[in-house]
Amino acid sequence: MVKGLEIYREKKIFITGHTGFKGAWLVKLLSLSGAKIMGYSLAPNTEPNLFSIFEIEKLCKSIIGDIRDKENLTKHILDFKPDFIFHLAAQPIVLASYESPAYTFDVNVIGTANLLEAVKVLNKPNLNTIIITTDKVYENIEKDYAYKETDRLGGYDPYSASKAATEIVVSSFRSSFFNPNSFEKHKNKLVSVRAGNVIGGGDWAKDRLIPDIVRAINNQEELSIRNPNAIRPWQHVFEPLWGYLYVGKLMSEDKLIEGSINFGPYTNDTLKVIDMVNVAIKTWQKGSYNCPELKSTPHEANLLKLSIEKAISLGWTPQWNATKALEKSIEWYKTFYETPNKIEQITIKQIEEYFREG
Ligand SMILES: NC(=O)c1ccc[n+]([C@@H]2O[C@H](COP(=O)([O-])OP(=O)(O)OC[C@H]3O[C@@H](n4cnc5c(N)ncnc54)[C@H](O)[C@@H]3O)[C@@H](O)[C@H]2O)c1
Known about the structure:
Elements lengths: L11 E5 L4 H12 L3 E6 L8 H4 L2 H4 L1 E4 L5 H11 L3 E4 L6 H6 L1 H22 L4 E6 L13 E2 L10 H19 L6 H4 L1 E8 L2 E2 L9 H10 L4 E2 L6 E2 L2 E2 L1 H15 L5 E6 L7 E2 H12 L4 E2 L14 E2 L2 H6 L7 H17 L4 H15 L1
Parallel strand pairs: 1-2, 1-4, 2-3, 4-5, 5-7, 6-15, 7-12, 8-11, 9-14
Antiparallel strand pairs: 10-13
This protein binds nicotinamide-adenine-dinucleotide (NAD).
C-alpha cells in the first residue's frame, strides 16, 4: 500500500494512456494501492517501454483501442463503471504536432469529447473524472510570469492549442452536463489538471530532453541540444501524479468539486536545459554534447512557469527539486541499462522514498 493512496483500495479506476510514460507509472502506483484498473490506449510506441518493463498487462485489464473510436471507448466505460477516470491519452509532443496538426487536434480535443460523452452516457453517481492537460494551455506572454489557473488560454503550436481547446471542452461539459450547481442531480465531478515537463525513469519518447540524453549516453553518441538556454519547470513524474491522485482523493471526500489546478515546482526551482544536461552527464559519469546553431527550428515557448498557489492551498506541495528529480531519473535509467534485474527493486524504492517523505 502506497502512503497517501489508501482511498483507492478496491476502487475501479479507468486510465487512458496506460501504455505511455505517465500512465504506466500511474497504473503501477494504483496497483500497489489495491485498485482495480482498466487501461485504454494505443499499443506502446517506443522500444523499450514501461508498459513491458512494469508488466502492466498483469496489473490491470488492458484494452488496446483508439480514443477516437467513440463506440469502443464508450462500450468499455459502460462495462467497467469506474469510480475514477484519469484521462492521459494524447498526442503529447510539440514537434509531432507540427508534422500532424489535424491528427493532434483529433486525438486531444475530439478524444476528450468522446470520453466525456461516454461519462455522460454512463450517468453514474459518485464518478470523479480528472482530465490531464499541460502548462502549455496558457497564452504565453514570454515574460517572467507564473501562470494562474484563471489566466487566458492560448497556444502557438498545434499541441498547445489542442490542449487549450481540450480545456474548453472540459469547461463546456462541466457547465452543460456536470454543473456543480446541480451536483445533487448528477453527482459527477470533473476537473482538469495542468502540469509542466516531467522527467523520471522509463520515458523513451522522441524529442524530449531526458530520453534524448539517455539514448545518446547509452549509444555513446554526442548529444545535440536545441534551445540550450530555454528555462523549463522540471519536475519528477511522481509530483504531478501525486497531484492528480490527491485531487481525486479530495473529490471523493467532497472537498473539491470543480475547476482546474496547476501542478509544478516552486517558481524559483527552474533550470536551463544546458544545466540539466550537465547534471545528467555528471550523475551518469559519462556523455558529451554540442549546441548546433539551428536557424529555422519550429517555434517553441521559451519560458514557462506555473503558479502553484491553488494546489498548495489544497494541501499539495512539491517534494523533489529539479536536481533531485534528475538524479532519481538517471539512477533509474542507469539501473535499467547496467543491472536490469534490479529495476523492480529501484522502482519500488523510489516510490517508497517519495511517498514516505510526503
Ligand atoms: N510528459 C510530459 O512532460 C507532459 C507534460 C505535460 C502534460 N503531459 C500530458 O500527460 C499525458 C501523458 O503524457 P505522457 O508523457 O505519458 O505521453 P506518452 O506519449 O508516453 O503517452 C501517451 C499515451 O496516450 C496514448 N494515445 C496516444 N494517442 C492515442 C489514441 N489515438 N488513442 C488512444 N490512446 C492514445 C498512447 O498510447 C500512450 O498510452 C498527456 O495528456 C500529455 O499531454 C505530459
